[in-house]
Amino acid sequence: MVLFLIASGLSLIFGVTRIVNFAHGSFYMLAAYLTYAFAARLPLGGAAFYAAALLAALATGLLGLVVEVLLLRRVYRAPELYQLLLTFALVLVIADLVRFVWGTENLTGPPAPGLAGAVPIAGQLFPTYDLVLIGLGPAVALALWALFYRTRYGILIRAATLDREMVAVLGVDEARLYTSVFVLGSCLAGLAGALQVPRQALTNVMDTTVLTEAFVVVVVGGMGSVGGALLAAIVIGVSDAFGVLVLPGASLVLTFVVMAAILIVRPWGLRGRPAGQERAAAAGVAARPALPRAWGWALLAALVLLPPLLPTYWVWLLAEVLALSLFAASLYLLMGAGGMVSFGHAGAFGLGAYGAALLMLRAGWPMPLAFAGAPLVAAAASAVIGFFAVRLTSIYFAMLTLAFAQIGYALVHQWYDLTGGDNGLLGVWPARWLASPLRFYGLALAACGGGVALLSRVERAPFGLTLRAVRDHPRRAEAVGVNIHRHQLLAFVIAGFFGGLAGATFVYLKGSAFPEYLALPVSVEALVMVLLGGVGTLAGAPVGAAVYTLLDTVVTRYTAYWQAVLGALLILLVLAFPRGIVGALPGRGR
Amino acid sequence: MRPYRLVLLGITLTLAFAGPAGAEGPIRIGEINSYSGIGAPFTLPYRAAVEMAVDEINARGGVGGRRLEVLFRDDRGQPAEAIKHAQELVTADGVTLLAGGFLSNVGLAISDWARQHRVMYVAAEPLTEALTWSQGHPWVVRVRPNTYEQGRMLAERAARTGHVRWATIGPNYEYGKRAWETFRDRLRELRPGVEVVGEHWPVLGKLEPGPYVTAILGERPDALYVSLFGSDWLAFVREANKRGLFEKMFVVGILLGEPEYIDPLRTEAPEGMLVTGYPWYAIAAPAHRRWVEAFRQRTSAEPRLGSLVGYITVLSIVEALRRAGADLGADRLSAAFRGLAVETPIGPITFRAVDGQSTMGAWVGTTRLDRVRGVGVMGDYEYVPGERVLPPADEVLKMQAGH
Q1: Is the CB of B7 inside 8 Å of chain A's CB atoms?
Q2: ipTM score of the complex?
Q3: The domain that contains B206 carries what CATH number?
Q4: What percent of chain A has pLDDT over 90?
């Protein structure tokens, strides 16, 4: 039921403001720590915990207010996904704030006073507190229902969920509506975090662990539907509990299999409605190289000529930047040119990495062949995933790609005989004649530089232009005879191929493959790179990848609180370049 | 940002960073560990003891007249990040060797990088057996007793209790699986009638305890083997306490007597559990007492097992450096570590010649509450040295060849 509280807040915020709020889990975590701190300090005896929980929820709502007014409001006019970048930066900042104030060790809060015991039901003891929470979920759902269906405010919210522009045209103050919804959603996240304190240990990573699950519930339920979130929380909770008894080996993957199955059958979730015509992140941006051609040649010359003069570490770092540039560029083809935002692009990256590792270690292929074969593995998997995914739109597409990436993650994580499980595959090193840093760099430059060049060619080819047409006006494109899904599927496969090539380059640089390569943080980093560089042009992706990686590397070297510093820098960058770094160059972009 | 500016930035940063250590400068150690991410709750007490050991060595004139300097890097719990630090530490900062590690996968990634690039790596805390056995190589050694050793220690004592019906719960990681398998296999050797009635593998870091406690109670085992740790363990205990699980069965917990895992439970710590751990408050050896006192004075915190491992890691490195002499190349260091004897606060340990695993042992005992300190402690404990549970050289060679 705690999951329902988080998910309903997330769902509300997305439904009205279209913000994919990555910081929602951070609000949840912060509220849990605040409850812990308040409960220890309030001189109220047994009531201290409850007062603390309430205070923490309100404080989180207040934080939501500050965040919305000071930060998010500034970028509502930017392409939609830039709010996502801001909330990602907030995740980093809040994580370090918690680390700074409460330290890294796990904390256990007080048991809920008066409800710490257990009640015998049918021969089993059930914790009283859990029973109270089970009752609280539907109560909150009922209160929200009353708010939405019995008040004028609720009518406005529902109207905004369906058609924001129309609500604005009718003279409703959008800004205030958005702010209030964001505050309400944050409060719900805070309440969830506070109520979790008697049940769970407090950790520095509870923000990210809860976020994926919350997304699952929101999407399965249908974005913007509180009733759907309640239903989905029950479905996921039951399938988890059922899985414990019946399929103990599948605990990692079950949730995502359920989610994928539901999305394939019901593309808008259990209770969601087909979204109206939405503007894609980069809608209306023409296909043209953002940078003068001469710059491209100068950059290439520098990348070829400079490395022999650089210290070894910088050669390695540049190779990493190249791999991530191609990774970001391949995602750009999907989300920029194709208007399809993927939250699971790490799947392609990780399959490329594992493809290379498995072909070499298990199938015994020579390294160059394995390197060349890896992108094909990723492309083949992308063809299967894409077949299901391209039928979905907007956030549902994003979440189905996430589900498939998570299924891939669970597969490599649990298939010990083939993949080595969480201990990974070791010894994935380049052939001897390619192993020196400079030679490997040469390979990375050829593969990734070449990959970016090819992607740029694809983008400007008739195929790329048609893809844009499909992105901006799917109906019209269809009317003139374009097979929408076939174009989108092809784009998905191409992106998968180059994502896989990036993963293969990365794995030979690091020497080992781990399930983490397929996990959500890798997908999110790719998104961050694309957005940071600018979603309007392919050149943004490599620039974003380079800036992000170099910033990260430098900041990490100088401070233990790298997350806070990196997050703050990202916030500044987003506010300074609301269309991305390349998008802000004079005379370009929109 | 314009490309040429990026290039300029690159050059500037390079000039700022590239400062290779000369032969007469300090001896640098590159220390990579999880100071953020899922390993973070356990690494700060380790780091504090590493710093303490380094200060002590330097106060006594360093090693061969050279100061010791440790560069700490945060791997964030991600193997790829750890490799990036290894690359930088070795080629840009000129460290003599790499050390550290908490998570098994990060330890394995660093170790494999070290093998490929011929750099010595002293793994401190990663537990996986693979590190020194199936994935072992000449340039890696490990300080802490591994999963296999601790599983066997527990099995030998658990076998005396005579429980027949066993269940287990642990994280769905190699660690959880191996912790159980080594325990179960040894227990069956000693008590052939042992029966397994349930195995549960929740997702690491996401334990929703209710269904698991229900399932375990439903299986009615005599005894439960637990390899959960961190926040999963804390959540499990709270739920299990409410539902009387600890009264209904005998519970064995690997690592769960370590202060890292038992202290956060405070007075909720279950009593009567058989655990491996570190009863620093009770170990009477004078050298250990002095060490605990010095650590508490310096940090005004109680030591954790990580602190002890961190301290011993530095002592071991110093001994190896002394043994290697003037040439600190990786091959010389590798040779110096093989068969190296180190005097530590808990007595002498040796890095075995065959696999580089140290013979540092662990304490096996039963938990009870210390009402004065308000935490769970280990009673009736015994120190089991690594020699007693480590496999002989020929078995290790077979495992290394099997890779």
Answers
A1: yes
A2: 0.91
A3: 3.40.50.2300
A4: 56
